[in-house]
């Protein structure tokens, strides 16, 4: 008998205990344990199968393969699609692995790779790679020490829990894109007894954190969250991974992964193009390079799987799931954080506007030639400063630019009201005035919001 239930607020009761029991029997997918985290709903098929998914309003986007016996994948996939259709939704599965791709009979799009390690090899990996040893040495020399945490230390109100909550908040605030949901949300405290935790400390202060979740049926571990404070010494994350690998080896776990590197490996040409364009917002290449320097044994392909004929819409549904249900809202939140690409776009638009101001035909729009060329010089300096800020964020420069652009909007408004509109009037003058005042006003809002975000 199939049934759909809501995962609720992330507590450990009812449906999640039922899912946990199924995971301990059938949880083979690397991401399988993540369906216990907040935001997931569950489609159960009898007592021996379930699918964890998020409902975007238009689609059910499942996290990995069904939690069930391998031989039931094809049947369950068809039944899940039918259940979604009955609720007026499409269906797809993100982060599936090769065995689902082979069994379900669905179309699949390779969306990246995940690196894998055999923990028993880790001591040899460290011994044979000088650069990795140097990173570990550097962190230890700076006074960083890593230790495992118990579930009791993570209870609300405990000092370590408070420090970790602050670290997570600081890490999320440092991202250039808005917080995401689905399989990349940071919520490491659901079912703490089932996880492994390691904390990096320096002089009594938490500077890094690693949370590993189980992959019961492999068996193995997925190092889901590895966070570092912005001021953590170099090598802190490597030291955390080293502790996790050695603990996995001590437990004789044969398999560890650090999870998907999106848009890497042998992907479609249009996805490679998306990676190039998206690197300004998300460092795909840097993430691949970091995981590669830890010398994985192999890379496994990860897929987006979907019923025949649903390819492009399945990608859109998955992006909506990651965007917590609203692509437009997510885009606006990211825009207001002022990532580097936004600063560069502002600079390019300002250069184009400045080129127009410098043309002879625009001279009548200024009180005098000196006024015209003063604006041209001012805008060129502003564009150069925006470009500099995009390559290296500096709070002092951001404050100066925000104040300057705000003053630009105010002075331009005065110029338009006192000099231009009374002389010219008409639709063209109104459009020019709107652009001249609205552009710096919008840029000022972006700069002030980006400055406040980074200050938090």
The CATH architecture name of the domain at 114-261 and 282-293 reads: 3-Layer(aba) Sandwich
> What about the largest sheet?
13 strands, mixed
Structural class: alpha+beta
Based on CA atoms alone, the radius of gyration comes out at 26 Å
The succession of helices and strands, N to C, reads: EHEEEHEHEHHEHEEEHEEHHEHHHHHH
How many E strands? Answer: 13
- The CATH homologous superfamily of the domain at 114-261 and 282-293 is named Gcn5-related N-acetyltransferase (GNAT)
Briefly, what CATH class of the domain at 114-261 and 282-293? Alpha Beta
Describe this protein's structure.
- Among the domains are: 160 residues, Aminopeptidase, CATH 3.40.630.30; 118 residues.
- The protein is globular, with a radius of gyration of 26 Å.
- The longest helix has 30 residues.
- By secondary structure, it is an alpha+beta fold.
- The chain is built from 15 helices and 13 strands.
- Helix content is 49%, strand content 19%.
- The two termini are 49 Å apart.
Task: List descriptors.
456 residues, alpha+beta, Aminopeptidase, 15 helices, 13 strands, globular
Summarize the structure.
With 456 residues, the chain is α+β, with helices and mostly antiparallel strands. It has helices at residues 14-26, 73-86, 98-103, 122-128, 130-141, 159-174, 236-250, 269-278, 284-292, 311-322, 327-336, 340-357, 369-391, 395-424, 426-455, and strands at 2-6, 41-45, 50-55, 59-63, 90-96, 107-117, 144-149, 196-202, 205-215, 220-228, 256-257, 261-262, 298-306. Strands 1, 2, 3, 4, 5, 6, 7, 8, 9, 10, 11, 12 and 13 form a 13-stranded mixed beta sheet that branches.
């Amino acid at each position: 008998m199939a049934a759909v239930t809501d995962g609720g607020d992330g507590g450990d009761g009812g449906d999640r205990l039922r899912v946990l029991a199924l995971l301990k029997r059938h949880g083979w997918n690397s991401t399988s344990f993540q369906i216990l985290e907040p935001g997931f709903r569950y489609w159960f098929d009898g007592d021996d199968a379930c699918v964890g998914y998020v409902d975007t309003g238009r689609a059910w986007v499942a996290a990995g393969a069904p939690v069930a016996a391998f031989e039931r994948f094809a049947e369950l996939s068809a039944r899940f699609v039918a259940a979604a259709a009955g609720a007026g939704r499409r269906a797809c599965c993100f982060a599936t692995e090769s065995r689902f791709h082979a069994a379900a009979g669905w179309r699949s799009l390779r969306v990246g790779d995940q690196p894998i390690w055999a923990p028993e090899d880790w001591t040899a990996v460290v011994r044979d790679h000088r650069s990795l040893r140097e990173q570990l040495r550097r962190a230890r020399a700076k006074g960083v020490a890593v230790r495992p945490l118990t579930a009791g230390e993570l209870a609300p109100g405990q000092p370590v829990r408070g420090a970790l909550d602050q670290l997570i908040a600081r890490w999320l605030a440092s991202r250039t894109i808005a917080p995401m949901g689905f399989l990349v949300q940071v919520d490491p405290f659901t079912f703490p007894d089932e996880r492994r935790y390691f904390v990096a400390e320096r002089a009594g202060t938490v500077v890094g954190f690693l949370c590993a979740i189980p992959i019961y049926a492999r068996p193995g571990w997925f190092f889901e969250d590895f966070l570092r404070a912005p001021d953590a010494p170099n090598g802190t994350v490597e030291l955390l991974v080293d502790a996790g690998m050695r603990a996995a080896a001590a437990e004789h776990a044969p398999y560890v992964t650090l999870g998907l590197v999106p848009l890497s490996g042998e992907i479609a040409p249009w996805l490679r193009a998306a990676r190039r364009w998206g690197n300004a917002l998300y460092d795909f290449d840097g993430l691949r390079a970091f995981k590669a320097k830890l010398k994985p044994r192999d890379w496994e392909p990860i897929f987006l799987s979907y019923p025949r004929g649903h390819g492009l819409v399945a990608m859109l549904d998955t992006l909506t799931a990651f965007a917590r249900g609203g692509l437009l809202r997510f885009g606006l939140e990211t825009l207001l954080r002022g990532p580097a690409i936004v600063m560069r776009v502002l600079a390019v638009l300002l250069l184009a506007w400045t080129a127009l101001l410098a043309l002879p035909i625009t001279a009548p729009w200024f009180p005098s030639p000196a006024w015209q060329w003063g604006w041209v010089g001012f805008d060129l300096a502003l564009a150069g400063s925006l470009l500099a800020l995009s390559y290296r964020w500096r709070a002092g420069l951001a404050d100066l630019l925000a104040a300057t652009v705000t003053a630009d909007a105010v002075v331009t408004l005065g110029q338009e009201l006192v000099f231009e509109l009374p002389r010219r009037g008409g639709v063209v003058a109104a459009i020019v005035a709107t652009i001249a005042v609205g552009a710096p006003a919008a840029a000022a809002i972006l700069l002030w919001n980006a400055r406040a975000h980074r200050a938090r």
